[in-house]
Amino acid sequence: MVAPIPIAGMVFALRAMATIRQFPEQFTGLWLARGGLVLSFVFLMSGLGYAGYIYATEVPDGYERISFNTMKPDEIQERGGMAIPPEIAALNGKKVFIKGYIRPGSAPVRNNIDRFLLVRDNNQCCFGDLSKVKYYDQMIVEITKGKRVDDDLRILRMGGVLEIHPENLARGVGYPVFSLKADYAVQ
Q1: Taking the domains of the chain in order of start, what are their residue ranges?
Q2: What is the pLDDT of residue 140?
Q3: Which CATH code fits 64-186?
Q4: Taking the chain, what is the end-to-end CA distance rounded to the nearest angstrom?
């Protein structure tokens, strides 16, 4: 997500180098521009490498990675009346790994929380009016064993048994369709 920053640094460094070469009597700093180009490249590669490492190693053995995007049915499935994508429905009762944020106000306390609403993001879809949050953008989490979490707006990495409750679709917003009996939590 921060890759555009070093890319912009590389673009600015290349433009600066071109300007310095075009007008060498007016501008100096070619070595600084080269240094900026090299540093931007190093930061880009190390950032991408670190992100790749995290992605490759964050899911514990025995868990299947899912995301809130995969929980959303596509247009064809929605038109066909299929609210739960088949690949997600197949994971009902199995161990899954998902990342998300604690929805403010979904837990009575801010520290040592064992039950809360996990949502897709920390700012865009899920922190406003609860009636506007879609069923596939939220999941009720109950930590059954392991470390409890704190509500500090950091991303949570949760693992546990996925339970799907399609009957809750007709009941409304207060009844989540997806729940997670979590036994793995990392902030």
Answers
A1: 4-57, 64-186
A2: 95
A3: 2.40.50.870
A4: 19
